[in-house]
Amino acid sequence: MPVYHEGSRALQDRVGVRETADHVGRAIGDGIKPVAAAFLELQPLLVLGAADPETARVWASPVTGAPGFARATTPHQMSVTGRVRPGDPLAPALATEGVRIGTIALDPRTRRRMRLNGRLRPTPRGLAISADRVFSNCPKYIQRRQSYEVVADRGAKDPRRGTELTAHQRRFIASADTFFIATVHEEGADVSHRGGNPGFVRVDSPRALSWRDYPGNSMFLTLGNIRSDSRAGLLFLDWTTGTTLQLTGEARTLFGADGARRVRFELTEATETPSALPLRWSEPEYSPANPVPAD
């Protein structure tokens, strides 16, 4: 599989960073190196992203467990013990052999992240993913959270579904400092992270939100996917209460006259699940790379 497809290449060329992207892209491999395997085994949270094979909608969903629940069982396979909660919108995809899936393990304690994309195989205890692409990213825009605790008696409440954001959900998004975005293309799926100071995501209407695309590693994997296939899934977490807000819809990138990029997301469906995750993280220390939201 080539490192970049035409969607990413088109954006790299528009911004003039193809040479930089080629250099950074050498870090993408198809194997899980020992240092990556060790990092993965320390994580209590993994975010998965894929397209539902029936509805074609793209969703991002979290899975949690004691460290070691996600681990490299071979240099080319990750196994996950555990499943998404019953009724999670991504559950049909995770039960389908061969589905293309993206994953990200992000550690707020060390401000490190690892992405592994590949093909899914359901297992009796969870799932296994045969790796096509494995790589890490720089710590830009990751908020440091020094520690977490497991709230053993916390249980997911009934999900709230809708086609418009409620007033509470709009406030939740407007106060977020982190979200995850799942995107797809004909050769695979990917999950990435977006972060910034609260207010970096703007709620434009009950069915639309947007955010400025901050300078990154010049790969343009997420925006490249969006250019080729507009479907996307967003995941917002409440790092204290464990509430999750999952959105699915379509995204597009807007370019300003000054070259600044803004991504606009149009909502198709929202699922909010109170107390979905048993993790309670400490208060954030915002990344020094975060720009002050200006619009």
TrEMBL record:
InterPro entries: Pyridox_Oxase_N, Split_barrel_FMN-bd. Coiled coil: none annotated. Residues 165-257 form the Pyridoxamine 5'-phosphate oxidase N-terminal domain. PANTHER family: FAD-BINDING, PUTATIVE (AFU_ORTHOLOGUE AFUA_6G07600)-RELATED. This is Pyridoxamine 5'-phosphate oxidase family protein. It comes from Streptomyces cylindrosporus. The lineage of its organism: Bacteria, Bacillati, Actinomycetota, Actinomycetes, Kitasatosporales.
